[in-house]
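ok trying this again, last paste got cut off
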Amino acid sequence: MEVSGWGLNDAFFVEKTELYWAEGGEKTLLLHHAVPEGAVIFVRLMAPENSFGSVPVAYQVESVQPMNSLGLCEMRLLRLHPRSRIDVGKEVASPSLDCSSKTYEPKESSSQPELEEVLYES
């Protein structure tokens, strides 16, 4: 597995490790990077034949054990699932163009042309 995220030092990391699944569905892994409880990390399956086709899966770090003598931290993970618009309600980070009532036009006093970014919802 390839694990990525931001460590305690606020630096982005990518590390290869093993993901362990217990009988009750509990997932744990060992990392050389210290990660705070509650952090979101991404786990991606490393397949030798097709490493570009694997999609990272988001997990939240539930608990972290102190670093062992080998310099590894054991952490328990909880899989995160995307929220639907119903769950979020009216608080949408990126509203669609239909919801946008603002029109952006360049300022007349601007000496350089401004670029306009338009995002489309698929």
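PB: full thing came through this time. The chain has one helix and seven strands.
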